[in-house]
Specification:
Elements (H helix, E strand, L loop, with lengths): L2 E3 L2 H4 L3 E5 H10 L7 E5 L4 E10 L3 E11 L7 E6 L4 H14 L3 E2 L2 E2 L14 H14 L6 E2 L3 E2 H8 L4 E5 L5 E2 H4 L7 E6 L7 H10 L2 E4 L7 H15 L5
Parallel strand pairs: 1-3, 6-7, 6-13, 7-9, 8-10, 11-13, 11-14, 12-14
Antiparallel strand pairs: 2-5, 3-4, 4-5
Helix pairs in contact: 3-4, 3-8, 5-7
The structure holds S-adenosyl-L-homocysteine.
């Protein structure tokens, strides 16, 4: 069933109206008709199955048929701190990490980051990538997205998690050992940029209390490392059965 994210307030009533791009998507792209059903979710864990009552390109109204709590959220809460990398690579990380289930993403400016952070807030493009990935993957919650932080700030924040990791291509502990029971409930993980992390950055992370962790003997691209470590952590946490 098609899923759409809507405001929490919109989902609170029994007749929901969507306009703008979502109305166009329903009417023009998906060619849905009155009587068809969709799932609406509020990005905060609540969902409703709705039947379309009237459909135009500008406005779609629908009736709530049933409500339920989303059941696809991960028990392990991962806060990913991927290095700031060039836009297409970072966007891939945002999309894939969201599909996998991460709770929060904060890009990190590393010494060898080539990309420069856009001044100010979180780019709206990042938000729409994450929204689409939530809708597509069947998740119930929007991951928190934060503006780019510097490396020391990321390290300081990361150590608030039960387990804080820094993926190092220079070697480190095994993820399996660090994720051994009792499995952490919150995990923070930093991954490096295209040019890799400098050994001094890994040392700095260690001084903050993060564990340097290896992802095996092959050097992964920055975006692969960020995606792979999330997948491996969910698997080791028992999230995949
Ligand atoms: N030059 C490559 C990759 C550089 S390594 C590129 O073009 O993207 C990028 C980051 O991924 C590293 O800093 C590290 O955080 C992570 N990484 C890659 N391979 C790794 C490995 N085998 N073990 C741990 N981390 C790794």
């Amino acid at each position: 069933m098609q899923r759409f994210l809507v405001d929490r307030a919109a989902l609170a009533t029994d007749t929901v109206t969507v306009e703008g791009p979502q109305a166009r998507q329903i009417a023009l792209v998906l060619r849905m008709r009155a009587g068809d059903e969709v799932t609406l979710c509020d990005g905060e864990g609540a969902e409703a199955v709705c039947r379309l009552a009237s459909v135009t390109h500008q406005r779609v109204t629908m009736q709530v048929l049933s409500r339920n709590a989303n059941a696809a959220e991960a028990a392990l809460r991962i806060h990913l701190y991927p290095a700031l990398v060039r836009a297409p690579r970072l966007e891939l990380v945002l999309q894939k990490a969201t599909e996998l289930g991460v709770a929060a993403i904060t890009p990190v400016l590393c010494r060898r980051s080539v990309a420069r952070p856009a001044a100010g807030e979180v780019p709206s493009r990042w938000r729409s990538i994450v929204r689409e990935a939530v809708e597509q993957s069947g998740r119930g919650r929007l991951p928190e997205l934060a503006a780019v932080v510097d490396f020391p700030t990321a390290c300081g924040e990361a150590t608030r998690a039960d387990l804080a990791l820094c993926c190092s291509e220079h070697g480190g502990e095994a993820l399996r050992d660090l994720m051994a029971p009792p499995v952490p409930r919150t995990l923070a993980v930093i991954t490096g940029p295209e040019g890799g992390l400098e050994e001094e950055e890994v040392a700095e992370a260690r001084r903050h209390g993060l564990h340097a962790v290896t992802l095996g003997p092959r050097i992964l691209r920055a975006e692969t490392a960020a995606i792979a470590v999330c997948a491996a952590a969910y698997c080791l946490a028992g999230e995949w059965g």
